[in-house]
Amino acid sequence: MRAYIGGHQAVSIDDFIELALGTPPELWLGEEGESDEECAARRDAACDILADNPKLPDHVARIAAEVIEAHAPELFNVVPLVRPSGRRRPFRKGAAA
Questions:
Q1: What is the largest CA-CA distance in the chain?
Q2: Could you give the angle at the alpha carbon of 68 between the alpha carbons of 63 and 74, nearest 5°?
């Protein structure tokens, strides 16, 4: 089964993220081993994109919330802890001797 978003084929999770954001995730997250000059250029490009699209952070937050909601059972696989049913020491009321 193939998935297309806006005429573009999404093959991997990174493709879905890039198509949803309209930019590659590395633009926002950086890449391991990038130089100071590459980091500065990436941040400048990100600032330009945010200036042109002021609603982008809201759009990204909405997408993240939808993904969390859709995958909550797997993301928050919480199992309640069972209290031990051993003997408890009785509470004694009174002053110490």
A1: 83
A2: 150
Six token digits for residue 74:
């797997």
Q: List the structure tokens of 93.
A: 């009321």
Query: Which residues on neighbouring strands pair with residue 9, listed in sequence order?
Result: 4
The DSSP code for 94 is S
Residues 16 and 5: beta-carbon distance below 8 Å: yes
pLDDT of residue 1: 61
Q: Cα(13)–Cα(19) distance, rounded to whole angstroms?
A: 10
Distances (CA, A) of 84 to 79, 80, 88, 89: 15, 13, 10, 13
Task: For the chain, count helices (H), then strands (E).
Answer: 5, 2
Among residues 59, 27, 33, 26, the alpha carbon closest in space to that of 45 is found at: 27
Q: For the chain, how big is the Rg over CA atoms in Å?
A: 25
Span 5-38, pLDDT tens digits: 667 777 787 887 787 777 888 888 899 999 999 9
